[in-house]
Sequence to fold (1194 residues):
Amino acid sequence: MTDTAATGGPVLAADGTPLKKSLARALRIQKLRALALIAPLLIFVLVSFIIPIGTMLSRSVANDLVADTLPLTVVALESWDAESGELPDEPVYAAFVTDMVAAIAVKRHTRLGTRLNYEQTGMSSLFRKSGRKIKKLDPAADAPFKDTLIGINKDWGDVETWKVLKTHSVRITNGYFLNAIDMRRTPEGAQAQPEDKQILVTLFQRTLIMSLVITASCIVLGYPVAWILANLPARTANVLMILVLLPFWTSLLVRTSAWKVMLQQQGVINEVLVWVGLVADDARLVMINNQFGTIVAMTHILLPFMILPMYSVMQTIKPTYVRAAKSMGATDWTAFWRIYFPLSVPGIGAGSILVFILAIGYYITPEIVGGTKGVFISNRIAYHISSSLNWGLAAALGAILLAVVLILYWAYDKIVGIDNVKLG
Amino acid sequence: MAALTPISRKPMSMVLPVTAAAGGFFGLFLGTANGSGLLGVVLGAAIITGLAAFYIFVLKNEALAKWITIASMAVVGFLLGGIALMIVGALAGWFYHWFIYWLYEGRYRARLLPYLTPKQVLWHYGFRVICGAIFVFLITPILVVMPLSFNAQDFFTFTPEMLRLDPAGYSLKHYQDFFNNNEWQRSFKNSLIIAPIATVISVSLGTLAAIGLSQSHVPFRRAIMAVLISPMIVPLIISATGMFFFYSDIGNWLEGSLGLPKSFVGYVKVVLAHAVLGIPFVIITVTATLVGFDNSLTRAAANMGAGPVTTFFRVQMPLILPGVISGGLFAFITSFDEVVVVLFVGSAGQKTLPWQMFTGLREQISPTILAVATILVAISIMLLATVEMLRRRSERLRGMSPT
Amino acid sequence: MKLTKLTALAATTALCAPMAFAEDMANEMTIVSWGGAYSKSQLKAYHEPYSANTGVTILNDDSSAEAVAKLRAMNEAGNVTWDVVDVVAADAMRLCDEGLALEIDADTQLAAAPDGTSASEDFGELLVSECFIPQIVYSTTFGYRTDMVGDNAPTSVCAIFDTEAYPGKRSLEKRSINNMEWALICDGVAKEDVYDVLETSEGQDRALAKLDTIKDDVIWWSAGADTPQLLADGEVVMGSTYNGRLFSVIEEQKQPVAMLWDAQVFDLDGWIIPAGLSPERQARALDYIMFATDTQRLADQAKYISYGPARASSAPLVGQHAELGIDMAPHMPTDPNNAQNTFLFNYEFWADYRDDIETKFQAWLAK
Fold:
């Protein structure tokens, strides 16, 4: 310091460049080298994971089907005032028939019906049934169409039908996201879904609550095990570790079906309870196809994810700390609660976040042991992807779920730091 | 430590009530099963206390006492309910004999610090019983399905023949099915091709990136970390559908533009998808190991003229190897046990073992999947045991005392 | 060190692999089916003889349960990897409606019966869609535990709603089709009026209200293997499933289970060819279909599984079970004794109303 002040000039490195510049260059090279090491993986993950997930999630707002299938109708409907309570005029009907005839030729109209049925039950059958008759119409010769269409199906004379068409003709829609929170897009703005379709908010709540219960039971069961593994001599601990690792390495499907064998009414647990007489034969416990089954099976499946991070944190806690506390007069409980437990919190944090995130996205296990009440929002996503084919809604549900997970991840990173997660 | 604690015989006022309680506990179950819980408790307590008193005051021969208890309880079990109960009885006999002498001789104190209060001793054993119960919870489902894999019927059900331990209730046909059925063999082979290659990709890329991430000045560290961890936190079903469209495009391009054969492209797709899923585990474990890595070692190596590559393989790698191996194991298991993504991304030619198990569960009732699970569990036990034995051997060779 | 070796090994595997795979590529086709005993019967009756005749390797993909979703995704991605797909008629109609399946002309593209009857006449009314070649007639019906019902063996389908006479759980499929019809029949609707009632919103609510009375007693199944397993465990007293599954439980596994044929719902299962295949793959798929749906082949399949062949001309050729040696005819859903009180499934109705009713049903289920 004093030297610099004395000479007045910048400090020079060995090769004569100013030290500051030289250091900056070294730093830059270091940064570049680090980035070069990370780059291959980063690009790999970005291209093969982040972008695909992004495009998948973009389906939650994309809504090209209506505008692509019925281009003329959409334009014609623009001049129609949905609030007027009057049916659209003949041009709309003519445009609709022209569009439909073209759509039927390439078999697009049933898809459109299915799409609109997500919004208004009955649209699918309307499009399918009318499609068979509209097919025979000639857009050029058979005009006017208004009465013909209403004759084909009286729903075409219902203002609601046209309102739904108009509302959902936009190319970018918030409709799926509204559906995902039990609302729907209407000409009058977002409104609540009819009572008998409201299930998704309940499912989100159920997913969160059950994941919390699972995480909590994993903590309760995992903590003693991690403690004993960390405090036993290595020889014994390693043998006991096998008991933790074996379930972990056994196929998820096998463990789930094992729980089915265990929990069902004629299952192992009930048979044993009946045999020893704790439960009457005609009052066997119902432990599967409900929330209890899901919680037990998933606690078992996720427990190793709790034990391993806890164990690796507890291994680093020196036993001398607790001994020191005791030598200064702390009781067993105080020594544990004031010294050991705070030191083990990072392990609990790491395990909890891992278990919670994995639990919230699970779907095979709840599907097999959860019945109707013990299923998660992921089961709903899977249902919309593979059965109802409502991929837009599936993507919207997935986006919400992902947002929840990302907030958790962010909070966790702020509080504990993701670097502190260890897996054995 | 053991030598520090002198053990001494305990007074009857402590031994007899405790054995009575233990006997009553067992008696409760037998009693309720046969009608009266209370009678069971009283009888159980009386019998076990009587046994204890008889051994301690009259017999005074531990080995003889052991065989008497085991044999008599086994006989009672057999009379009550056949071979299955006989085994239970023998085990109970062994336990009660051991328990009586463990208490009476004060053996329970032998491994504990001498200054512990009785309450602490009780907690010590109580805690171990709790942990034991949790281990039982962990392992029972796996033990339960193992006998079912020898089921003579095609269901996941314990048949009456199995419970009677009648050999007719057991068969090896599900194991035969696994070894003779083309579908199972093909999917097993596919898993053995896909999982290791996916693991190698995620381990090699992941380790490099983890080393990069662990250096002191990395711009956007948090964001990069979040991206790399993301495959673990995105719910699988979303990843699966997202990747489906992406890999279909990749597949079209590889087949169309590069003219690669269809089945090869199929493998590439599944391997890459699984590699992505395994990466977070590698990143997490290797960065965790690198936190404790002393960077002066690499500088020392550089100082002595080693290039970066040599330094990496000769200095850094051996030290972080445990982290790399455990990350690799996680990645391997992820791929080897993955069913959702492969269902979407793979096609029939790349059917993996979990996929076959999944259809096995859905479309056919076949304990073959339990046979496969049993084989895999046996293999992992052997692997784990070998690793542990090697560890002990190297400990011995290095002259360390067992820890 | 080890790592470098491993990497090198992986690299060589990766490089050598294309050559190894290249050869078996040319003559391979992927056939999608349901798996289990059903796929096995197809393997024996169709795949093995076809491979022997033509040298084509057939890869079996057990994905029929997800066929509609996957075909739609494949179509969207422009990469259809399946050549022939086995689906139920309702799915086939949906695929056909959306242009995801190839239209097939029965008379020119399928084999005629041995006596020269044209294929369209031989299949008759079973050709419910232009894209669909029926293969078997199956029925969804009930099985019950003989040891759990005592002397009071159920004779009517309405036993599922009678929890007093038949306490215990019952299993039903996790979808609206069939369950809604049974609910209405047991709620007093005449068989011929069922679809008229179900067309209206009130009728749908009425069916759901009836199902609501047993909602807590039902285990919902989604895979064909579920009900047989539940019956074998004694976990349910009765349950709906496909008649072939029950045949296997009763005759092959000798479980204490019996069939309840009342109000069994006939349905069809058969082939479709995905739209958008390359000309050569499409030609091969058509060739396979022509072979696999001829009179003899359909009759052959009935040797391995108790589903009735879809061709009228195959029925007389149905013989005995290949392993058990029992006569298969009495176990066919189409046997006159079994078909006394059959419920006629309305394909057009379900094609039109499936989306509407299924949405309601699933919402009701999740409540």
Chain C touches chain B through 47 residues (CB under 8 Å). Confidence is low (pLDDT under 50) at residues 1-25 of chain C. The first helix of chain C runs from residue 2 to 22. The beta strands of chain C are 28-32, 57-61, 84-88, 133-145, 169-173, 218-221, 236-242, 257-272, 308-309.
